[in-house]
Amino acid sequence: MRVVILFGSEMGTAEAAAECVADELAATYDVSVHDMTDFDIDELDAGDFHVVICSTYGDGELPTGAEPFFDALEARKPDLTGLNFAVFGLGDSVYGDTFNRGGEIAAELLAARGAAQIGAHGRHDASSEIRVQDMVRDWAKALPIPSPAALAS
Q1: Structural domains of the chain, with CATH
Q2: Which of 3, 14, 16, 69 would give a disulfide with 7, using CB separation of 3.0 to 4.6 Å?
Q3: Model confidence over 36-89: pLDDT tens digits?
Q4: Phi first, then psi: what are they for 36, rounded to 5°?
Q5: Separation of alpha carbons 20 and 25, rounded Å
Q6: Can you give the three-state secondary structure of 115-134, one letter per residue?
């Protein structure tokens, strides 16, 4: 199974988190990392497992780098039935109701097209003492991705 990691970032933190997830999963899976700015929605494949790592920008919006991907998703409305994904969001709780909203929007838009979110929705808080790299690695270890061996049997 291939794991496709897509990140949407404003300041680079989501990209760094995506690289941590790739490092964590590379021993077991064929992993690729893509900036959502450069990833065409036609490349979404139900045979792959998708990991979306998305920051929150402004007043609880998607980061600029994720907007073209999700705009295309809304405009072209592909059927993503059978596609499984997990989401790790980045935000800061000082922003109250909009905390981690970018990741939530990403999950909502994918689910609206028929994709299924699996595993815990990761939410990092920049105001916490926990480093994003540590939290995202632990989150990635716990993802319920079928192992290649399990798929072969």
Answers
A1: 2-146 (3.40.50.360)
A2: 14
A3: 999 999 999 999 999 999 999 888 899 999 999 999 999 999 999 999 999 999
A4: -60, -25
A5: 9
A6: CEECCCCEEEECCCCCCHHH
